[in-house]
């Protein structure tokens, strides 16, 4: 599902001023070699076990959002995360919607907020993601960029917290630099997202089915009990997976391929929409 990322020797302003610890990533970018090994090595040096980069952005000014993912995590976990719609409850992602400050999290800080979140934490920990740091990165393109550093250590004690605070600047700078590399080597070159061709998750099919019945993102979010912003993120993933330009094309392709059916039951929202006044949607 996730192909290796080989840069095309991009010109990266400011690379000469990066800390020496970034040398493996700089060398990989400049020589056009695969980034996975360099990123994994660098993340280990900074005290973490895996790295995740995800973005939903406009590849061109006249385009709708498209999603990209790069990670050193196992493909099995990536597929599991996608199909179970863990993005809806993942604190690493949710935090970046509302704050530019890095989130330092572990099993103690996040557990007990909901049964769904506890189940996610258990599953993530079983796959080596028990604590870490996540942060949002500014992008000149309209969109959302998340970088996460993950550790199998379940609890961040005082010594661990000190180590993280000491390297926090490097973690932020690495995220910024990796985003620059990714934009120049993948997005600007028009390469396909690694998500393209992946199967739609059950939640994505629900979102698309509701959209096919005329519901807006706000209405879909109300029906599925998720935020409007999360619906838009699902739709971005749907467009990317199906390789289409907009929501209408996604609906047409999904119907043509039998992924969704306009006639199938779509929960309470459609019936309420059809019987409610034309001025709005009511629960």
Please characterize this protein's 3D structure.
With 283 residues, this protein is an alpha+beta fold. It has helices spanning 23-31, 36-45, 75-83, 91-98, 107-110, 115-126, 158-187, 202-212, 217-224, 228-242, 247-256, 267-275, and strands at 50-58, 65-71, 103-105, 131-136, 143-151. Strands 2-1-5-4-3 form a five-stranded antiparallel β-sheet, with helices on both faces. α9 (217-224) crosses α10 (228-242) and α10 packs across α11. The longest helix is centred in the middle third of the chain and has 30 residues, at 158-187. The protein starts with 22 loop residues before the first helix and ends in an 8-residue tail after the last helix. Mean pLDDT is 86; it is low at 269-283.
| Spatial gap, N to C terminus | 39 Å
Largest sheet: 5 strands, antiparallel
Number of helices, where a helix is a run of at least 4 consecutive DSSP H or I residues: 12
In terms of per-residue confidence, which ranges show pLDDT below 50 for 5 or more consecutive residues? Answer: 269-283
Q: Would you list the SSEs in sequence order as H and E?
A: HHEEHHEHHEEHHHHHH
- Average predicted confidence as pLDDT: 86
Class of secondary structure makeup: alpha+beta
Report the C-alpha radius of gyration, rounded: 20 Å
Q: How do the strands of the widest beta sheet line up side by side? A: 2-1-5-4-3
Beta-strand proportion: 5-15%
Outline type: globular
Query: How many DSSP-defined strands?
Result: 5
Helix content: 40-55%
